[in-house]
Amino acid sequence: MKSLFSVLLVLLALGAYSQTKKSTIMAPKKVLFVVTSYGEIKSTGHKTGIWAEELATPYYYLTSKGYEVVLASPEGGKSPIDPKSEKGDFATADVKRFADDVTAQQLLANTVKITDVKAADYVAIFYPGGHGPMWDLPQNETSIGLINAFYDAGKPVALVCHAPAALQNVKGKNGEPLIKGKKISGFTNSEEIAGQSTAEVPFMLEDMLKEKGAEYVRGNDWAPFAVADGHLITGQNPASAKVVVEKIVAALEAK
Question: Active-site residue among 161, 200, 206, 231?
């Protein structure tokens, strides 16, 4: 009887282990999206926020690959979308899909506070652009800390369009700007001028990146362009969101 009881205990333990292992294997890997809480340009009164294409395109690409996306912002709660980015030719198929997607809209309406985020829970960090991130992320100490944590852990750190503004005050272990000497892309001066949006930004992104010592690289205006310098990935403009997220997945799958 004791022998039978022992066998049953072993079988139950193996079953529990098997279920635990299975659930661990089945759990989707999570990618953190850090988004803006900034919704209005004070000097102009214009509404701003995330540029919708730069959120929607990476979101659907990653979820189609089996990754879970978590949205976090400085203030938590609802993160604003730049209304202009959902109109006319800016409203891509993914943008329209995102606007009608109940699950996606719930995520956007209930972003996690970045102070509640643990870098260890995620495999990569991504910053969508828009003018909003230029105002509330460069000086945000929690965002700076997250970028350092992901970068130092060798995890992909990706930013697109105006979002590389969040790198402005990030320093490496040597005390120098993290981007110094690295190939970095971002929204060009010529694109900002052509878009008649220079009054919407606190600084010209291209100028800032160069001032911090980055090796600024770019493609043609409005054309898709992204660059990876190690596991630091940056893209030039909204059209570059797809290229950036492809590089994120490629980096993750290479591990």
Answer: 161
**Residue percentage of the chain with pLDDT more than 70:** 90
Query: Is 231 part of the annotated catalytic residue set?
Result: no
| Domain boundaries defined on the chain | 30-253
- The pLDDT of residue 37 is above 70: yes
CATH superfamily of 30-253: Class I glutamine amidotransferase (GATase) domain (3.40.50.880)
Q: Quote the pTM value.
A: 0.90
Residue 86 designated active-site: no
Share of the chain above pLDDT 90, in %: 88
**131 annotated active-site:** no
Separation of alpha carbons 167 and 211, rounded Å? 12
